[in-house]
Every structure is written in structure tokens, then in C-alpha cells.
Design goal:
It contains six helices and two strands, in the order H-H-E-E-H-H-H-H. It is elongated.
Length: about 130
Amino acid sequence: MNIGEISRETGVASKTIRYYESIGLIPPADRQSNGYRAYRPNDVAVLRFISRSRALGFSIDEVRDLLTLWHDKHRASADVKALALEHIQGIEARIAELEAVKGTLVELTEKCHGDERPDCPILEDLAGA
């Protein structure tokens, strides 16, 4: 299967597949006599795993750790759960940051008259006034 076929099969862009290969997230594809990459059926499963992990917000390094755990049939599920719980904590921290940003913007927009006058609390705040 060439890169275009595996891209269609997995929904992962060809450029992204080449990137994952360049950083060692997936093993280098075999090369055909014409120099084109030739992917194996197992590569489809790995790319789908990576794609789903990325969709859930895991970083490349976290995906690398998850792949290692996935391939290790003697792993403890506690290790996988610990990684996921740590990821959840990061998500909760980002949500709290976004809620704070939202609160600030709501407060600023409530103070802004939104009329023809030039004074604007939003711009004053951004300027550090």
C-alpha cells in the first residue's frame, strides 16, 4: 500500500505520515523498486491508534509512550491509566485557564459601551492601562 492509499484508509494526511516517520513515531516504510514507500497492513492500525490519540489531545511524546505500552503485551493497565489520568489533569488545567480568560473577556465586554465613543475598556486592558 502506498502513502496515498494508507492516507485514505486512515484519514491521516500524507504529509503527517511522513512527519511521523521522520520523528520515529512510526517505523520507516519499506521502499519499492521505484522508491515509493510501501506500507504494511499493521501500519494502518498504528496510524489509526496515533490519529485517535492525537484527536484526544495527547502530545506526540504521550503518543510515543502510549504506543510503547500498546506494543508491550506484559504492561500493567495501571501504567496506561496513570498516563490518561495525567492527561486529564492537563486538560482540566487548560479548561480552568480558558474559563479565566472567558471571565475576563466577559467582564471587559460588559464594561465596553459598544457605541460611537472612542474609549474602550477592552483596548485599555490590552494596552496594560
